[in-house]
Amino acid sequence: MTKSAFVTGITGQDGSYLAELLLEKGYKVFALRRRTSTPIMENIEHIKNEIEFIDGDLLDQGSLINAMRISDPDEVYNLAAQSFVGTSWIQPVLTGQSTGIGVTNMLEAVRLVKPEARFYQASSSEMFGKVVETPQIETTPFYPRSPYGVAKVYGHWITVNYRESYDMFACSGILFNHESPRRGVEFVTRKVTDAAARIKLGLQKELRMGNLDAKRDWGFAGDYVKAMWLMLQQDTPDDYVISTGEMHTVQELVEIAFGRLDLNWRDYVVIDEKFVRPAEVDLLLGDCTKAKQNLGWELEVGFEQLVTMMVDSDLAKLSK
Ligand code: NDP
Ligand code: GDR
After folding, report:
1. Which of 54, 80, 248, 298 is close enough to 8 for a disulfide, judged by CB 3.0 to 4.6 Å?
2. CB 128 within 8 A of CB 156
């Protein structure tokens, strides 16, 4: 029997890789699409004809109930969110509504229409924020440092609560930063690889950055969507940290990206207070032993390979 999946956030980085994986596995893929004046399909251009889109919005409960009725899914992946931490200080209410309450809207739609469907919530290492222990594991206490992080903590706990209240198969994946050539250009990795390529081609003169000392645990999005799928294939629902277990500074990222193009980053990078956050998350480092043991999940792409892949992709795109 063909399995069916319903995915929110399909136009984003993770939605596109997850949809590819599900299609490869023979799933019928339904996806929530919110109306925009100009459709942005760049990430899913190559697979959009294989996906059945259902119009709606995480903020509109009725549209989610309708989507559940049309798709009748075996698995639901809730990836939609206002996902940029910086914007969450500029639009804290909207972030709370989509990244936080939006999870309840989605869970309610599942509970009312298809309570036996398996549910994945895209939780985040940003929930650890001002970390109280390193490395962070599933039981590390949360201390979010942005409106985004606060909203994700709500989304995490409401997922756990629906599992415990209604016996639903609901999992929360606590994913550390993951990147790819499909990453939005405002996120630091893509901002750097895109700028390095532009500078190499003479299309940009400098790169304005915030805190170069921040440390992150960066992996490849294509590896991480496999973990999402694995979580929903287990006998029991649970929460999992997904990470590489390696930490690098933003400066190391810049060095590798510019070095790939034989550029000295110090000639181009300018520190601009505009990109320094009101409250910073200084470091994140995950320990995903539980996922490795229970899910058999393995990482394939390392940090340097990831940055190189992104620089090469940006250079090729911009050279066209
Ligand atoms: P993106 O920002 O690339 O994609 C976000 C998606 O959410 C887009 O498809 C966007 O649609 C959609 N969306 C936003 N608001 C709404 C709404 N109100 N209703 C319906 N759809 C909406 O994020 P990523 O792919 O990087 O991340 C996927 C999820 O995983 C997010 O929830 C993110 O917070 C979380 N996460 C990401 C990590 C990462 O490192 N990438 C790490 C941990 C968690 P549109 O195109 O219409 O704007
Ligand atoms: P993050 O990702 O906030 O970790 O959230 P981002 O790439 O935006 O920032 C990472 C770190 O880099 C520092 N930084 C800069 N960041 C940006 N965007 N632009 C800059 O110029 C810059 N200079 C320094 C930041 O201060 C920060 O410390 C991402 C998102 O995908 C979330 O949705 C997800 O939940 C988390 O990763 C895990």
Report:
1. 80
2. no
Tell me which of 32, 61, 79, 253 to substitute to probe ligand 1's pocket, judged by most ligand atoms within 8 Å of the beta carbon.
79
Question: What is the mean pLDDT for each group of 10 consecutive residues in the chain (320 residues)?
Answer: 97 98 98 91 97 98 98 98 98 98 98 98 98 97 98 99 98 98 98 98 98 98 98 98 98 98 98 98 98 98 98 97
As for how many domains the chain has, the answer is: 2
Q: Do residues 106 and 58 make contact, with C-beta atoms less than 8 angstroms apart?
A: yes
Q: Token pair 């892949």 is at which residue?
A: 309
What is the chain's length? 320
**Residues with Cβ < 8 Å from 132, sequence gap 6 or more?**
140, 141, 143
Amino acid 227 reads A
Residue-number span of the structural domain to which 273 is assigned: 183-217+246-283+301-319
Residue 129 CB less than 6 A away from ligand 2: no
